[in-house]
Amino acid sequence: MTDAPHGFSETTTYIKAPARDQITDSGDVAGLVARVLADVRAEGDAAVRRYSAQFDKAELDRFEVSPAERQAALDELDPQTRADTEFAIDNVRRFAEAQLGTILPLEIEPIPGLHLGHRVIPIDRVGAYVPGGRFPLLSAPIMTIVPGKVAGCAEVVACLPPNAHRAMIAGCHLSGADRIFRIGGAQAIAAMAYGTESVPQVNKIMGPGNAFVNEAKRQVFGPVGIDQLAGPSEIFVVADASGDPELIACDLLGQAEHDVRTRVGLITTDRALAEATVREVERQLQTLATAKVAAESWENYGEVVLCADEAAMIAYSDFVAAEHLQVHTADPHGFAKKLRNYGSLFIGENASVVYSDKNVGTNHTLPTMGAGRYTGGLWVGSYVKIATHQWLEDKAVAAVAPPAIRQSGSEGLEGHQKAAAIRFDRLKQPA
Length: 431
Prior knowledge:
431 residues; 17% strand; Rossmann fold; 16 helices; 14 strands
């Protein structure tokens, strides 16, 4: 047992503390990424080709995947894998369509003659970064491409590392990508942000990636939109005495195998469950095929926190704002309503993160490192703009112009004052 988590010394205790802090110095990454972005912006395809050879060991005459190559990748796909992929695509599409149905255009008349509203406008061209990773993550293109197609984006451009598994090309194709490019890393973000001879410039870039991809998204943000800045994956479980240590340990390790920097944790009010879960994690690691990665993640970033009561458990969970938050309590639905900060919430023991990661329909691109305190994850709304408009009848001008004239005068903005007054004065003139 060690000291309590920072700021929670009176209500919480570590049963298992993390050995390291997930936040690391990214200075070297930032400098290298800045050079890549500058070179791609200045040199276009030539720089992309050079960095692809340097970082991915890929010598490519052309970057875009041709229709014939797309079809070949599709033909090579195992029939069951294709069926499973299409099952996931259908679920993600249905959920995105239902979400889009809640985003409605607006027209109101708050005072006579004053008409205000907004339109829901799809972003014209979006870029989907599809990470390669150590495994072919077939769910990755589904989560970034399908919502864009549902939203009505005119073009969805996908980039994936040139050494990514060919099944990933099939996944991009089935998800509806209009164009697919074999470009990875920071050079892919640069190509989509600035445009090259081969790659069209996009308006917004979606999708997770490694530290270099994340830093590249941070640096290009402004003229180009981004979905979010995502760190290593996270999973926390909040549980009371009803929790099952075997299930909890299994779910923690299911995320821990993603990356050696994955953050995993249990927040509980029950000491027996906390200690049993630590033992169960160690037991399951003995036979887990991905234990080399998962064990390092658990050792460095795993934590088990014992809370004095339910209120402390809720407070600590909201402080962590975990990317994935599972609720294993006697009344999971009632408890879930008390939680405010998370990327996505998994209510009850049946709701494992793996189902959302793969195929239930909610998006797995979620906020990490505390960002759940102020934002949710990627969704169909990320692919549209809510743009306002207004128009005024003469009777509305008569109502809004006088206070606008006075306010402009008090602010010393004569141009504003005249622009408001000229319309008001014309109302007084005979027709």
